[in-house]
Design brief:
Strand order of the largest sheet: 1-4-3-2-5-6-13-12
Enzyme class: transferase
Strand content: 25-35%
Order of helices and strands: EHHHEHEHEEHEHHEEEEEHEE
GO molecular function: L-histidine N(alpha)-methyltransferase activity
Oligomer: single chain
EC number: 2.1.1.44
Keywords: Methyltransferase, Transferase
Radius of gyration: 20 Å
Organism: Parahaliea mediterranea
Helix content: 25-40%
Bound molecules: N,N,N-trimethyl-histidine
């Protein structure tokens, strides 16, 4: 079989403490990783198809249009590593042009990872697929028997935008370590742009993003044994121009008490819970961030409207 699975599943991990700390702090927040329970992942898949949500279709068009050039930049026979691989859908656009010696899929949700890896292995029987269930933000170990070859990190989707700039810089530094002195990285980043397009992309007319945002409260109720009533919160997403980030919040529509599975919090009407930041970078901003992490931008591909960019980074 061309698919081998490794379970480096993080043991324990204290979601309860982390959630309580965020919900009981002065500026209440929930880490965006909690948006992606099973229902949240399905809602996000629906978001990627919404007319207002341009990032996914724009990035896929860039990968499709420039596959050969990206393949040339990464070099034949490279070992492609995708943190947060999810459905492994986007990498399919590169495989024929790139012909990597192996593809390492890293994700924290085991069942989805195994299923996606098996499907990929069936679709590309020539490709060696290694699926590793791990939290790449904490630690993961490349399997000892990876084939030799330049290591290239593939990190699409502007997922790097979920990280605070300092954490994004640290993660780019991690990538620098994974790739060694002769490797590279292919990173998708949503661009800073006029507010109208950005606002619409996070406030779609059908209300799917609102449902995605409110769904995090169901996930938190499940983890904490809390009694959030999602229908008592309003989806609020706006572009914070100074910080160059979309912020998503859930705003209490009226005063309410919430039992967090023990501790009780009091919310006044208008109090907000911050559920996600999505940072947007101009090419100049992102190049500066990469430089701080010891990486240079060797190539950049964009769409005609300059909505989104895919960068090829190297030491
Ligand atoms: C998957 C984190 C890139 O920030 O645009 C979509 C998640 N949030 N709509 C993004 C998201 C609201 C998405 N990322």
């Amino acid at each position: 079989a061309n698919v081998i699975c490794h379970d480096q599943q993080p043991r324990g991990g204290d979601s309860r403490a982390e959630l309580l700390a965020g919900l009981m702090s002065e500026h209440r927040f929930i880490s965006p990783k909690y948006l992606y329970d099973a229902a949240g992942s399905r809602l996000f898949e629906r978001i990627t198809a919404l007319p207002e949500y341009y990032p996914t279709r724009t990035e896929k068009a860039i990968l499709g249009a420039h596959g050969p050039a990206m393949g040339a930049a990464c070099g034949e026979g490279c070992v492609l590593i995708e943190p947060g691989s999810g459905s492994s859908e986007k990498v399919r656009l590169l495989l024929e042009d790139m012909r990597p010696a192996a593809y390492v899929a890293l994700d924290i949700s085991a069942d989805f990872l195994w299923r996606s890896a098996r499907r990929l292995g069936e679709a590309f029987p020539w490709l060696q697929v290694r699926a590793i269930c791990a939290d790449f933000n904490r630690q993961w170990r490349p399997p000892g028997d990876l084939p030799p070859g330049r290591r290239v990190v593939f990190y699409p989707g502007s997922t790097i935008g979920n990280l605070e700039p300092g954490d994004a810089r640290a993660f780019l530094g991690e990538m620098r370590a994974w790739m060694g002195d002769d490797g590279g990285a292919l990173v998708g980043v949503d661009q800073h742009k006029d507010e109208g397009l950005l606002h619409a992309a996070y406030n779609d007319a059908q209300g799917v993003t609102a449902a995605f945002n409110r769904n995090v409260l169901h996930h938190v109720n499940h983890i904490l044994g809390a009694d959030f009533a999602p229908e008592r919160f309003r989806h609020h997403a706006f572009y914070n121009r100074d910080a160059r980030r979309i912020e998503m919040h859930l705003v209490a529509e009226e005063a309410q008490q919430v039992n967090l599975g023990g501790p009780v919090i009091e919310l006044d009407a208008g109090d907000s819970i911050h559920t996600e930041n999505s940072y947007k970078y101009s090419p100049g901003d992102f190049s500066a961030l990469c430089r701080e992490a010891g990486l240079g931008v060797h190539q950049r591909w964009s769409d005609p409207g300059e909505l989104f960019s895919v960068y090829y980074l190297g030491p």
